[in-house]
Amino acid sequence: MSYIRSTAFEETGYVVLDRHDQAADPKEWLDLEYVDWKSSGQTRFAPLASAFGEMECDGFWNHSPARTDKDGVWVAANVEKAPVLKARAEEPGANIGRCRVIELQPNDYANALYNLHQDDNNRLNPDGTGWIVRGFFNLSDDPESYLILREDRFDPETEVRIPLPAGAQVIVDTQRFWHAVWQKGPEPRYCLITSWESGPELDAYIERHHGDPHSPSAPLDPAFVESAQADVRRRLAERAATISARSRPGAAIEPDDSDD
Fold it and tell me: Region labeled Disordered — which residues (predicted)?
């Protein structure tokens, strides 16, 4: 299918923008109403824009009428508490789909790799319209934590690790990348996540904020990476075996109460 895509993402699939002066903004995310929503770790979300302006985070295709991740409706109870965050989401002038603040509890590298996932933002997206990408604006100060991007889920050679100090701003084609965050902690991470439609408005915003498609990847010991990879392979194999056992007629398997 032929979508409108930004040339800024052609080479690497992401851009890092100029850092925002987060210290100049109020900590609006601390006043928001959060809902439990599972995504890549121990998380909660505070929706700012949802399918119909309700306090929920479900994909727009799971509503009636079903549609792609565009034309989000502001959640009044939260945007009243967060006018600065709303303004930052609106600044590009691009069509907004889901917009929310994530709260992520501390994790480790292996758990981040285990929780790598691709988004499905462009489900039901009409041919010839703008491709949906996502902005990640770090609100809390997590300079030793990383946004992990991989084009191949199981190939560390494709991994990019982008540091997350307060004010870090990254836009990612999250349907291209497997992604998750390694939040070293000790406090939760807070980040404004916005779905935007690609087009001239977003292109101009990226240019205005000097979008850089080449972020130096933070170094890690290869042995440390391989150890984490081995842990992920083991956990995935165990999970597959559990699912297979559950599918056998008459199998008596205890429920999996893990958070995976």
Answer: 240-260
Residue 176 burial (C-beta neighbours within 10 Å; 0-12, 13-18, 19+)? middle
Note the pLDDT tens digit of each residue in 31-75.
999 998 777 678 999 999 999 999 999 999 999 999 999 999 999
The domain segmentation of the chain, as residue ranges, is 7-208
Q: At which residue do the structure tokens 């700012």 appear? A: 48
Place of tokens 């691009």: 94
245-250's contacts with Cβ under 8 Å and 24+ in sequence apart are none
Q: Report which DSSP code applies to 161.
A: E
Q: Please state which of the ranges 38-47, 104-113, 160-169, 215-224 shows the lowest mean pLDDT.
A: 38-47
State which amino acid sits at residue 92. P
- Do 51 and 190 contact (CB within 8 A), yes or no? no
CATH label, 7-208, candidates 3.50.50.60, 2.60.120.330, 3.30.70.1290, 3.20.20.190: 2.60.120.330
Contact 20, 84 (CB under 8 A): no
